[in-house]
Amino acid sequence: MNLFASLRPAHYLWFAVLAAGSFLLAYLAVRPQQPAEPLAEFKSWQAPLLQPLAEGRLALSELVDIAPGELWLQPRLDGPRLLYRAKLAENGRAWEVEAELDLTAEQRQSLQRATAAQVADGEVPLGAGLRDELGPQKIAQLLIKPGTVPVAESALLPTFGPPRLRLQLAEGEALVYPEQGLTVHLLEEQVRLLHWVPRAALKH
Question: 117, 73 in Cβ contact below 8 A?
Answer without folding.
Answer: yes
